[in-house]
């Protein structure tokens, strides 16, 4: 098995096993004996490898693992097979090789429809690719070129008709949307250089929406984003240390989420995992800034103040010594400063009751708090609300069970200034010496850090 396939196409991250179901997959593929396949699954942070197995001498490929239902991908040197796993003992068969072979799923399973659509597109895509290669070897003045070019245009038109028909009549079905998501319009043979690149990028997401809830967190979803980064020459920009160009590509991707919060979280998690702070700090913080500006709550401050806070916040990484901030207006009055919190690990979250993202984050934290509190976690939630009555009602109504404080001076106050806060929510995981263990930007990152710390 060529491991480069996995490295290039997929971001490999750890799979969590809590509360998941034992799954079994068996695939009869007599024409692939001895071939190795990798089973891949997507989640909130990217794609990960579930396992690797070879097709045995009886032509059977089998996997057993702890996981969820949903979209999976089998990867091999022979090609990929995408499918939706709908029960815990799933079986299908392949006659021939992936891509060109015939797949058969259980009766009435929508995977049959999905792969029917894919096979229709595969035939057309193959024809377009072959014709394009042949045209590139001919002189445009030759009669044979004109005949072949007319055929090329005809097949291109046939594909466009199929795309429009599928989009118009079946867009509510997931098989159609997943099949459409994989399709890209191949530029005309006459387009070259920048015109070719511009056309390709313009039409890259015609039949794929980052904000589509059906597509999110599937292998196809992350593959498409990875291809978008590639066609926008992200690796060349990184080698050239062209951070302005890198920022443009990242910003363009975030705008393509149509400002839909869940799609922005998936995108942010994927990008931050692909470009981790430990390896490429500048790129990581470009991603963080793009995500925070679009998917958190901003306050009105002077532009210079915001820019200074953004720059200063980039130093607030693991190992940073958090200031021993005063905790104003604590409800029980027992804890007056951050240093007085007695815990193995403290989650400091700066939030605001007027910020919907803050409230959603606190609700998710509340779900995991009892379990981790028993292990040694404490949460200190500092609000930046200016109205104490409003803040107290918010805490009371939502039953926040941790240490609650409020700095009524908001982003202009001491707390926000000392921590370089410019948006809410902002989070820090802190050890007893007040050193940061991590600075999670999303709930996914927070949960992963907690599992790692308390494992």
Explain what you see.
The chain has 455 residues and is of the alpha+beta class. The protein folds into three domains: 4-106, Immunoglobulin-like; 115-293, no CATH class; 297-453, Glutaredoxin (3-Layer(aba) Sandwich). It has 15 helices and 15 strands. It has a five-stranded mixed beta sheet, with helices on one face. Strands 4-1-7-8 form a four-stranded mixed beta sheet, covered by helices on one side. β2 and β3 form a beta hairpin. The longest helix is centred in the middle third of the chain and has 28 residues, at 143-170. The chain is globular. The model is unreliable at 1-18 (pLDDT under 50).
How much strand content do the residues show?
15-25%
Spatial gap, N to C terminus: 32 Å
Strand order of the largest sheet: 12-11-10-14-15
Structural class: alpha+beta
Instruction: State the shape.
Output: globular
State the oligomer: single chain
Structural Rg:
26 Å
Q: What is the number of strand segments?
A: 15
What share of the residues lie within helices? 40-55%
How many distinct folded domains?
3
Question: What ranges have pLDDT less than 50 throughout 5 or more consecutive residues?
Answer: 1-18
Q: Summarize the main sheet.
A: 5 strands, mixed
> What order do the SSEs take from the amino end to the carboxyl end, as H and E?
HEEEEEEEEHHHHHHHHHEHEHEHEHEEEH
How many helices in DSSP terms?
A: 15
Mean pLDDT over all positions: 91
Give me the secondary-structure topology:
Blueprint: H1 4-9, E1 21-28, E2 36-43, E3 46-54, E4 60-67, E5 70-76, E6 79-85, E7 89-95, E8 102-104, H2 110-136, H3 143-170, H4 174-181, H5 193-202, H6 219-231, H7 234-239, H8 243-255, H9 261-274, H10 281-295, E9 297-298, H11 303-313, E10 345-351, H12 356-375, E11 377-383, H13 388-398, E12 403-406, H14 414-419, E13 423-424, E14 426-430, E15 436-438, H15 443-453
Parallel strand pairs: 1-7, 10-11, 11-12
Antiparallel strand pairs: 1-4, 2-3, 2-5, 5-6, 7-8, 9-13, 10-14, 14-15
Helix pairs in contact: 2-3, 2-4, 8-10, 9-10
Protein name: Thioredoxin domain-containing protein
Domain Thioredoxin: 316-455
InterPro entries: Thioredoxin-like_fold, Thioredoxin-like_sf, Thioredoxin_domain, Thioredoxin_ResA/DsbE_sf
């Amino acid at each position: 098995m060529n491991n480069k396939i996995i490295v290039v196409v997929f971001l490999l991250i750890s799979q969590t096993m809590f509360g998941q179901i034992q799954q079994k997959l068996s695939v009869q593929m007599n024409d692939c004996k001895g071939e190795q396949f990798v089973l891949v699954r997507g989640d909130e942070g990217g794609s990960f490898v579930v396992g690797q197995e070879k097709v045995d001498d009886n032509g059977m490929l089998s996997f057993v693992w702890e996981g969820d239902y949903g979209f999976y991908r089998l990867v091999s040197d022979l090609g990929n097979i995408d499918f939706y796993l709908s029960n815990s003992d799933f079986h299908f068969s392949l006659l021939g090789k992936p891509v060109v072979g015939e797949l058969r799923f259980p009766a009435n399973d929508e995977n049959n429809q999905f792969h029917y659509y894919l096979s229709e597109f595969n035939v057309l895509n193959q024809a377009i690719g072959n014709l394009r290669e042949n045209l590139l070897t001919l002189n445009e003045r030759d009669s044979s070129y004109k005949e072949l070019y007319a055929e090329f245009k005809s097949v291109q038109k046939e594909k466009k008709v199929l795309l429009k028909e599928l989009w118009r009549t079946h867009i509510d079905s997931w098989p159609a949307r997943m099949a459409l998501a994989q399709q890209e319009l191949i530029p005309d043979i006459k387009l070259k250089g920048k015109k070719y690149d511009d056309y390709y990028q313009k039409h890259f997401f015609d039949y794929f929406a980052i904000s589509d809830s059906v597509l999110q967190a599937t292998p196809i979803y992350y593959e498409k984003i990875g291809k978008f980064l590639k066609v926008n020459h992200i690796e060349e920009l990184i080698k050239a240390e062209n951070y302005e160009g890198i920022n443009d590509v990242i910003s363009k991707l975030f705008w393509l989420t149509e400002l839909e919060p869940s799609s922005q979280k998936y995108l942010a998690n994927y990008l931050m995992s692909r470009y981790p702070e430990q390896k490429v700090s500048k790129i990581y913080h470009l991603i963080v800034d793009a995500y925070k500006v679009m998917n958190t709550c901003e306050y009105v401050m002077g532009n210079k103040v915001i820019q200074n806070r953004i720059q200063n916040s980039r130093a607030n990484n693991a190992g940073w010594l958090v200031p021993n901030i005063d905790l104003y207006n604590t409800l029980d009055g027992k804890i007056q400063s951050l240093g007085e919190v007695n815990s193995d690990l403290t989650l400091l979250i700066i939030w605001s009751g007027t910020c919907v993202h803050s409230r959603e984050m606190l609700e998710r934290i509340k779900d995991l708090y009892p379990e981790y509190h028993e292990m040694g976690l404490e949460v200190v939630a500092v609000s930046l609300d200016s109205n104490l009555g409003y803040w107290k009602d918010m805490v009371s109504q939502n039953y926040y069970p941790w240490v609650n404080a409020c700095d009524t001076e908001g982003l202009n106050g001491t707390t926000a200034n000392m921590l370089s806060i410019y948006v809410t929510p902002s989070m820090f995981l802190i050890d007893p010496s007040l050193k940061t263990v991590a600075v999670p930007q999303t709930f996914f990152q927070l949960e992963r850090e907690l599992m790692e710390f308390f494992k």
